[in-house]
Give the backbone structure.
Amino acid sequence: MEDKKETFAWGLSLFLAFFIVYTKFMSYDFNFDGIVFANVLEHPSAEGLFHGNHLLFNYVHYQLFFLMQKLGIVCRGILFLSIMDAFWGALGITLFYLLLHRYFTGLVSLCGSLLLGCSFSYWYYSVEAQVYQIANIPMIISLGLLLELTRKKDTGNGIFIVLGLIHAGGVLFHIISVLLWPVMNVIIYRTQNDRKWQKLIIYNVFFFGSVIAGYVIAAWYILHLSSWSQFWRWFLGNAYVLPIAKETYWNTNIWTMLSSTFTGWIDTWLSWTENHIWKISRMILVVSGILLLVKALKNIKNIWLEEKEKVILALLWLGTYSLFLSVWCPGNIGYRLFLMPVFIFLILLLIKNITTGRKIWCLILACAVLLVYNLVNGIYPRSIPTNNQTLLQTMFIGENIPRDGYLIMGGNSFPFALGRVYVPYFTGFQGTSLYGYFCRAGEKDFTALGQIINERLNKGEKVYLMSEVLKDTHGKVAFEYNFSLPTGSIDRFFSQYSMSSFKKYNDDVEVFQLKKK
């Protein structure tokens, strides 16, 4: 009983410590998705609250956001989501510590949790508004349950009901969690001798039943989708929309897959830096990490004999996700949040038989290095608002463009997309993003946009154009290629209006006023 109280106390301490640190260095990076989700909280709609790729994310956070407002606590959606990610991130570390404590000593478990919390991807998405951290909670719980199956074979049916429900929760928070499905089935099949097929059926019934029920309710009873084509367009999200614009996150070039996967893993642990001294330090840390990993792998034969099922679980989990992520967004470190806990668990297994003193000091050193390096290079700079040039440009527009004007933006640059999300969210300007305009079904030319502009000019209203639309790097070349527009069509369209410089921030951001010739 005393040991359980001490373990709980350490877990609670970890939660409080990381929550305080995460909220102390909140990010002002403000990525594209985070602003979109924040806008949904402030302006809820059925279409916004139920997104096909992460069905329950917006809905759950909207309910919490609404409750907070009822209690008299008012803040912008972007701040709320950032704080919630800090909460989910700190909770994940606590759950991971409690999981590790069942298999390793208290100090090793503490170090393993610190490695997770101080890794760049985990830290960054605990201070940045995004969808990953809440979806990682069911994955950590699932890891704990699967590890229990490797310890206690032929368990009762209850754990398989819980596995199905927990895994379904992970999928409903982020669709990529479905990659765990083959791992679940293999581990259940391998660890259960008594009534294994019955247990597989129980897990799959509760898993698929919950996931299907969630999507059916959202698609047909809430969104009222009337056809399968509408459903697939909504369900696939970016995977459906981007190819229309000749953009895709799919990658099949073998060398790009390998290189992006390798650099993606490095970026998962260590933030990128432009400083030459820190670049050298980063290279040294990467080489050192690879050498230590190779040395740890030499122990895999002994660990295999002792902990075969746990090693199989870890390798299956890592292999399944890694194979998919080598093709879809291979450089996305957010998806690797779902790999980090099982990766750290495998490393701790591999060094399990190393002399305690050496092991602990190596782990403590690794934690200290990650903490200092990622705080200095990746986290602290992003906690300074003036380091976000896109935010400064947006504030300039908000302060200098009349509120009664109509603003035409580009929005083709990703992920920040000044015109697509920053200006509408932070300034509230009414306007049109060309990217969103051409993504809409049926918009193949400038006819509708011309009608909007001419109608406003005829009423004496002011119409403004952001320079990103006219720049090759942000507008013309990208738009004309992505949407199969005739070469030079953007210049030809806007040439029918007289254009004068209204306000200029710098060479990247200038606002023009449009008038009839």
Summary: The radius of gyration is 25 Å. Strands lie at 406-409, 431-433, 463-466, 497-504, 510-516. Confidence is low (pLDDT under 50) at residues 240-246. The longest helix spans residues 196-222.
